[in-house]
Fold this protein.
Amino acid sequence: MARARANDRKARTRKLLKDEIGLKKQLEKVAAKRRTLPPGEPVKEDYAFDEGAGRTVKLSQLFKGGKNELLIYHYMFAPKDKRPCPMCTMWCDGYDRIEPYVRKRANFALVAKAPINRLRDWARGRGWKNIRLLSSFGSTFNRDFGVEDRNEEQSPAISVFTKDKNGTVRHFYQKFALMSPAHWRGIDQLSPVWNLFDLLPSGRGEWHPNYEQ
């Protein structure tokens, strides 16, 4: 009986390995389709962001080091919020640590609607040292890119921008975390936490992050 159970487990594990390889191939297939998209519409405005210490930087100036690709994480932190989104914070805890690696290929920044002094204070408390922090306070950037409604409620997303040889900045792609009963997930592939939970016998469950470190 024990040998039969062991053989059954081995057979199911081999089948699972095939499924995992299939999943990897599907992800690669989707990524390849994404790369074939048209370049995207030119950004209508060269948005200005507050970087603190009296520094203002424009969207077009975020392309540094000869790199023509830019990732922006839209951080859920509105001016009226006492604290930012805990789930966004978990993602960005990780993004801050990997930013030096991402920087080798593309520029990366975090944009929040909250004033820069509040964003910088929060980042300092989290121990963030790498990711570039920008505030879109006083601009329509969040609203124009669909991460803010008319009540100033924020939505999580990540945007990809490109800059061509003529200096034209384009919005190439945007990935949202869709939060509805029918589709709760969206950008969870961009956080290792959920993928680690998927390996557990108990799965993801109903766990949600708070501000623990």
